[in-house]
Design goal:
With 377 residues, the protein is mainly α. It is 64% helix and 5% strand. A four-stranded mixed beta sheet has the order 1-2-3-4, sandwiched between helices. Helix 9 crosses helix 10. The longest helix is centred in the C-terminal third of the chain and has 141 residues.
Length: 377
């Protein structure tokens, strides 16, 4: 078991009970959540709270850095099909109240450590203007010592919605060092659209928060929204009237804003349609150009094919011509060869005839000489 909760906090006179969390949790529910946070899975000083940023982004940011959101720390108590999870047994309203109580218990356990990391939109509007988010109305007062003076030493802040600032951390309590963040990233445009809280829900949150603070808060260490809510209890009648006027004004402002947004939406829709029309026209033009290009390429290809065929035909004709010429040359050479052969034969025949003639003359001469010799005898 982790040592972040003292013996006095585990039970008896110093236990966290219905007195602190009565607007949200029963004693049994509180004890169940306390037991979950006292397990070895608790990572001291590695918790993350968030306000004004998407839950998915906050969960992803924490998971990537090995840190715990309320969802992570609650474990099976947040798994809807787990026997320990009470979600299926509660209405949406009761479950919302239960989660606010779990947030307060989570913040109390964090307050036993040294520091906490909070994710929010960047300056100048880091928190909801109403001051009634879970973090502003419950978690922050507890972190600063609303329950028996147990407070963290330091609250640090990160603004993960700003690209490049996902790991830039600075202190906001006890001293606010927002100037360090502004020096690095500048003063960005304020967040314009905050989640709207209905008057009925607003009154419920206020009354529950007042009951929570009046039940167990150490007001000396509470500042900001929590202290403002306590002072509000003293001037309730006056503020009810003021609230109605403000709500009426806000309702009118909301309607005007909705009207403006509707007009803006229509304008954007017209602009989108015009853009789509322009893109369609551009697409058709590109399609026509593509077809013309393909047609031109096809024509060019056919022309090249015809040219190639003509060239092949010319080469074939040239080849045939050369072949005929070669054959004629061979025929001529053969004829020449035959003629030379005949001439050679005729020459040989003439020489043979000449040789015979000479032989006969020689024989005749010999005969004549023999005759001459015989006569002399």
């Amino acid at each position: 078991m982790n040592s972040h909760i003292s013996r006095a906090d585990e039970g008896g006179q110093g236990s966290l009970g219905v007195s602190e969390f009565r607007p949200y949790l029963t004693t049994e529910e509180e004890n169940q959540i306390n037991k979950q946070f006292q397990k070895d899975t608790w990572r001291r000083n590695r918790q993350v709270l968030w306000s004004g940023v998407p839950h998915g982004l906050a969960q992803e940011w924490a998971d990537e850095r090995g840190m715990q959101t309320l969802t992570t720390a609650m474990g099976p108590l947040m798994v809807s099909d787990h026997p320990s999870c009470l979600k299926s047994k509660k209405s949406q309203k009761s479950w919302s109240r239960y989660m606010r109580g779990a947030s307060a218990v989570f913040a109390y356990h964090i307050s036993k450590g040294e520091k906490i990391t909070v994710l929010s939109p960047p300056p100048p509007t880091r928190f909801h203007p109403d001051g009634l988010t879970n973090y502003q109305a419950l978690e922050e007062p507890v972190l600063k010592g609303a329950i028996r003076g147990s407070a963290v030493s330091c609250i640090e802040m990160v603004h993960p919605t700003v690209k490049g600032a996902e790991d830039f951390c600075y202190q906001v309590w006890p001293a606010d060092d927002a100037r360090l963040w502004i020096a690095n990233f500048g003063m960005l445009p304020p967040k314009e659209h905050w989640r709207r809280i209905s008057p009925k829900k607003r009154n419920l949150i206020v009354s529950q928060t007042e009951l929570f603070i009046s039940g167990g808060a150490n007001m000396q260490n509470v500042s900001g929204p929590a202290k403002a809510l306590t002072e509000k209890q003293k001037r309730e009648k006056k503020e009810v009237e003021m609230r109605k006027k403000v709500e009426k004004k806000m309702e009118e402002k909301r309607k005007m804003e909705e009207k403006r947004k509707l007009k803006e939406k229509r304008r954007m829709e017209e602009k989108r349609k015009m853009e789509e029309k322009r893109k369609l026209k551009e697409k058709r033009k590109l399609e026509e150009e593509r077809k013309m290009k393909e047609k031109r390429k096809l024509k060019e290809k056919r022309k090249m094919e015809e040219k190639r065929k003509m060239e092949e035909k010319r080469k074939l004709k040239e080849k045939r011509k050369l072949e005929e010429k070669r054959k004629m040359e061979e025929k001529r050479k053969l004829k020449e060869k035959r003629k030379l052969e005949e001439e050679r034969k005729m020459e040989e025949k003439r020489k043979l005839k000449e040789k015979r003639k000479l032989e006969e003359e020689r024989k005749m001469e010999q005969k004549r000489k023999m005759e001459e010799k015989r006569r002399k005898r």
